[in-house]
Specification:
The protein has 198 residues and is of the alpha/beta class. The protein contains two helices and 20 strands. This is Transferase hexapeptide repeat family protein.
Length: 198
């Protein structure tokens, strides 16, 4: 669902996948290898929203802002299910946890990790490599190389997902029973705790 608004037509690179049940409106620019999941709303009706290459906006996320603002989600920013980004800028290769809310004019530095369900107040600036949690959110420590390695591998899965969706996602009628030889999906990514144990 791609909508023009007051003469602004979203720009979506051909390598990026916007799910048909997502809504992208107005002054939005989406770079290469981005994924926008079902239920996501990216509203560039009052200002500009730029998703640089490799960004993912997962299911049921909202990206919006106050009138006249311009925001950038930098390369490989990773926005977890249900998060709200309202007028905030996200640094390169950061991870925003599920159901997090980030308010206007907040700045999340590169390679930051924001824990699930955190609330980041307006105008707060977090430096790069901060591990941020809570309500209101605060820095609890620096992000380790191991955590960034884990995060980067997870984001690469989402950067591959657009190609996989173009290749195999299609609307179908459901089966009425489970097939006898239904294949098991492989385990190709670990939780952070499993990753640490390797």
């Amino acid at each position: 669902m791609i909508y023009a608004f007051k003469g602004y037509i979203p720009v979506v690179h051909k390598s990026s996948f916007v799910h048909p049940l997502a809504a992208v409106t107005g002054n939005v620019v989406i770079g290469k290898n981005c994924y926008v999941g079902p239920g996501a709303a990216i509203r560039g009706d009052w200002g500009e929203i730029i998703l640089e290459d490799g960004v993912n906006i997962q299911e049921n996320c909202t990206v919006h802002m106050f009138p006249g603002k311009s925001i950038v989600l930098k390369e490989s920013a990773h926005v977890g299910h249900g998060a709200v980004i309202h007028g905030a800028n996200l640094g390169r290769n950061c991870l925003i946890g599920m159901n997090t809310v980030i308010m206007d004019d907040a700045e999340i530095g590169e390679e930051c990790i924001v824990g699930a369900m955190s609330f980041i107040k307006a105008n707060v600036v977090f430096p790069k490599r901060s591990l941020i949690v809570g309500n209101p959110a605060k820095i609890i420590r620096e992000v380790s190389d191991e955590m960034i390695d884990w995060k980067t591998k997870g984001t690469k899965l989402y950067q591959q997902l657009p190609a996989d969706c173009f290749e195999s996602l299609r609307e179908v009628e459901p089966l009425r029973e489970v097939p006898k030889n239904r294949p098991t999906q492989e385990s190709f990514y670990k939780t952070l705790e499993e990753f640490k144990g390797k």
